Amino acid sequence: MGVGTVGTGVARILLQERDLLASRTAVRFNLAAAADIDWSWDRGLDWQNVRLTDDPTSVTDDPGVDIIVETIGGYEPAGSLILRALRNRKHVVTANKALIATRAKELFTAAKEHQVDLLFEASVGGGIPIVKGLREGLVANRITRLYGILNGTSNYILTKMHEEGLEFPDALKQAQEKGFAEADPTLDISGVDAAHKLTILASLATSSIVSFESLYVEGIQGITALDISFAKNFGYSIKLLAICRCLDGKLDLRVHPTMVPNSHLLASVRNELNAVFVRGSYVGDTMFYGPGAGQLPTASAIVSDLVDLSRDLRLMDGEHFCNRSINTEAEAQTVPIEEISNRFYIRMYTQDRPGILSEVSGVLGREKISISSVVQLETQEQDEYVPVVILTHSAPEASMARALQRIREFPFIRGEVACIRLFSDTS
Predict the structure, then answer these.
(1) Tell me, what DSSP letter sits at residue 92?
(2) Which distant-in-sequence residues (6+ apart) come within 8 Å of 122 by Cβ?
(3) 215 and 231 inside one domain
(4) Torsion over CA of 308, 309, 312 and 313, rounded to 10 degrees?
(5) Is 105 among the residues known to form the active site?
(6) Are 137 and 192 in a shared domain?
(7) The domain spanning residue 244 has which CATH number?
(8) DSSP-assigned letters across all residues of 296-347
(9) Could you give the number of structural domains in the chain?
């Protein structure tokens, strides 16, 4: 259902790699039907023996169909069609991260009630097998840390800012010209797309339902070339990082720009690539890395789910399939962002006169935020305002929020006061 970019990639694999799949799975996959609202353009495929339709319900209701692949995207009609397929006892494979992130309890409950499976490897990380890795490869582990670069558009933009000195608008324009960013890139640059994916990974890591609304989400729109330059001088790279940490039985879940030390593997993830760093209680540290989007990587992930389901479909009468659903009875508890502590980078433009740093440090001191270092640059132009950067030691988010509110009210500050969190791998 949905034969656009990704759906066409899935169809290409099923139609052109039948012998390869059969040799590896002992199952022959037969593409029975394909549904899309627009068949006016050529997908470059031979659709012989495939029923083409513009009515997706004729697929969900077809008694001869075992598995439905949903690649429509978005919330509706995809959500209603998936539920209809599950209630018709069809296994479903989807790449729909937004739907899984926001309606997981409803969808997995329906799958369980009707004794079918709902698989979603392609919803996170494109061709990276991170879902299977968490669900199967690391099944013996309690996941204590998960850090992800989960949005290729944002990572491409930040890479170009880091390597070419571009400002954000120019890097975004280049990403759009290269096809890495949509005409409307809001979901990517705002952090919402990465937050959808983090919700899914956190649910898998904890075998529970994680509320998307409980995540703290911040985008990269405010990052400037000056911030990138300071980060490089301090030995950091700025990444849009998705964070999941287990803290005393609760989850610290957030997505925001983060200054990652260049010594960490995540700092070297460039351009549109994705990576997920995972720490397990027994395996230790692992990292999954690769293309996070694109027609064929995503289609590859969908077909891997089809192969998994083929094992269920070969079970004898009376046997039950291996339900890999998230436990819908367990709901994860999260830690509010205000209760988390971080180190911070603060950048502001202040008037170049004595006493200003004392006033700023006084505000931080009253919130018991200690300063690690201060850098003040001299401007080349005749400008009474100069950029000042402060790095702090670890401090509670609530304290920093109060301090920033007061600092932003000072009359000697021009423009926005930027605040970026520094990567921390401690509890």
Answers:
(1) E
(2) 6, 93, 94, 95, 298, 299, 301, 302, 305
(3) yes
(4) -130
(5) no
(6) yes
(7) 3.30.360.10
(8) HHHHHHHHHHHHHHHHHHTPPTT---------TT-B--B--GGG-EEEEEEE
(9) 3
**Any idea how long the chain is?**
427
The interaxial angle of helices 18-25 and 5-16, nearest 10 deg, is: 70
Q: Mean pLDDT score of the chain, rounded to an integer?
A: 92
Residues 266 and 387 in one domain: no
The C-alpha atoms of residue 26 and residue 307 are separated, in whole angstroms, by 10
- 261 strand-pairing partners: 236
- Out of 20-34, 200-214, 366-380, pick the least confident: 366-380
Q: Which residue range forms the structural domain that includes residue 39? A: 5-127+294-313
Do 93 and 223 belong to one domain?
A: no
Q: What pLDDT, in 10s, does the model give residues 385-406?
A: 899 999 999 999 999 999 999 9
- pTM beyond 0.85, yes or no: yes
| Helix, strand, or coil (residue 369) | coil
CB atoms within 10 A of CB 23: 9
Q: Which member of 90, 112, 132, 197 is catalytic?
A: 197
Phi-psi bin for 390: left (phi > 0), alpha (psi -120 to 50), beta?
beta
Are the C-beta atoms of 255 and 239 separated by less than 8 Å?
A: no
Q: Do residues 217 and 195 make contact, with C-beta atoms less than 8 angstroms apart? A: yes
319 part of a folded domain: no
Work out the average pLDDT over 347-369: 93
